[in-house]
Write a structure and sequence with these properties.
By secondary structure, this protein is an alpha/beta fold. The protein has a single domain, classed as Rossmann fold. 40% of the residues lie in helices and 19% in strands. It contains nine helices and ten strands. It has a six-stranded parallel β-sheet with strand order 3-2-1-4-5-6, with helices on both faces. It has a two-stranded antiparallel sheet with strand order 7-8. Strands 9-10 form a two-stranded parallel sheet. Strand 2, helix 2 and strand 3 form a beta-alpha-beta unit. The radius of gyration is 16 Å and the shape is globular. 39% of the residues are buried.
């Protein structure tokens, strides 16, 4: 599968490395492929990592992961709506402290045909790099449309080493977001640090 990751920060680069190791082809969409930040990301991910301007990466990818700063999404979808309209799009952006912390409305308004998922936003990137606590996999809570694209997304979640937990359609995005807020609250406000994860237990 050809995956385009927009952004090469901690989340994007960590997931990109995992998906490359799982045999997927990954391209990173960035504003400036020759910037020092990209050079550092290339060194971390590997010299084979492919970095392209954002519009070129979008055209190449079957699945698009949005891991850019929250405020950048509106411009990206407005400028690239034609290329994004029939893709599977994963919104991993956050705007903690706002009434709505996801970009789903912005994406949907620009391209109602896209298959949009809310995922990879409710945990720290460290849990994507090392998704196991004593042999127990970290849970990845997500939401979005049911169907073939959901199976595709669960495959990508599993390729990272995470256990997918489906919460329902996009109307459940506030629940996924609340789990992200909980993780941030425990990590920073309650002093547990970033080495924590959320787990669904069932008898």
């Amino acid at each position: 599968m050809y995956i385009a990751i927009l952004g090469a920060g901690n989340i994007g680069s960590t997931l990109g490395k995992k998906w490359q190791q799982a045999g997927h082809r990954v391209v990173f969409g960035v504003r400036d492929p020759h910037s020092p930040k990209v050079a550092a990301a290339r060194k971390s991910i590997g010299e084979a990592a492919e970095f392209l301007p954002i519009p070129d990466a979008i055209v190449a990818g079957e699945v698009i992961l949005l891991s850019v700063p929250y405020s950048a999404v509106a411009h990206i979808v407005a400028e690239n709506a034609a290329g994004l309209c029939e893709k599977v799009i994963i919104d991993a952006t956050n705007n903690f402290g706002a009434m709505v912390i996801n970009n789903i409305h912005t994406i949907r308004a620009a391209m109602p045909e896209a298959q949009i998922y809310r995922a990879f936003n409710a945990s720290g990137w460290e849990n994507f790099a090392d998704p196991s606590y004593g042999g127990i996999p970290v849970d990845l809570f997500y939401c979005g449309p049911d169907g073939d694209s959901r199976g595709l997304l669960e495959g990508l979640i599993g390729a990272v080493g995470l256990r997918p937990v489906y919460l329902g359609g996009l109307e459940m995005a506030p629940v996924v977001d609340a789990l992200g807020t909980l993780w941030v609250t425990l990590s920073f406000k309650q002093g547990f640090g970033r080495g924590i994860a959320l787990k669904l237990l069932q008898r």
